[in-house]
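== Folding task for one protein ==

=== Format: two labelled lines per protein ===

==== Paired sequence and structure tokens ====
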Amino acid sequence: MKSRNRATWIGLSAILLWASVMGMIRRVSQELGPEGGAALIYTLAAALLLLTQGWPRLKQMPRHYLGWGSLLLVSYELCLCQSIGHAHSSRQAIDVIMINYLWPSFTMLASILVNRQPVRLLLIPGLLLSLLGIAWVLGGRHGFDPSQMLASLHDNPMSCGLAFMAALLWAAYSMVTNRYAQGQNGISLFFVLLAAALWIRYLLAGAPDMHWTGAAWLHVIWAATAIGFGYAAWNIGLLHGHVALLAGASYFTPVLSAALAASLLGVPLSSAFWIGTAMICAGALLCWWATRMGSQPLPPTADTLASST
């Protein structure tokens, strides 16, 4: 029992590590640029994953998982990094991070649609509550304020749109992994492809040279380590810990992510923001419960829950 509890705590540490990544991506983007900073983070993360996970056996991988999985994960991370990196302010970056956390609700919806599970009534209020939570976050200090929400969207439609697209892409990636992976884990390969894509984007964008500081090095290393070792910790939790507890705890990642990002970026958050964040978490939990009431929900694999990155 002690070993199982220890493994559960190790798995829970992965949630904390992944929650810290979002704020770090924003800080590195401020220091080294959105393109170059992201390329450095994911290059180092890919190296750490190769050390901890190893190179996948490509011949054993189903083709659908290899093709669609790599395409969807790379596209997801590109959208996520660019949405955070190109936010006009640190507060807007946190808002964008919250939009990305629509992915749990979208994943549960996709699970029902693709697996043809019966539609449970809890799914509808769950989705609506998650969307209302985003509206509450974008409404600023006064909570639900349609005019302020539209103003926030109009101020930077690219970042908001990319974050929303990222949530959809991660839901699709989760479904592909669940449906086609057959127990295989291609995350090391996918991150190598992602790092290559980010460097290509950096070169094509004509981004300026990166000016290094000690703090920039520290933030890059922290973000990459949180991603890489987060996978290893999560796998230990899944294999030897309380899986149901880990799955439930993962849906509170938005709260942790917002708190850590606010602390790192020095952004004060209003009570209205936290109410909206609580709505997002509650909506995701309702969608999860609606799926549990039907057939078996998506298993919480490291390949489908990390990103919360």
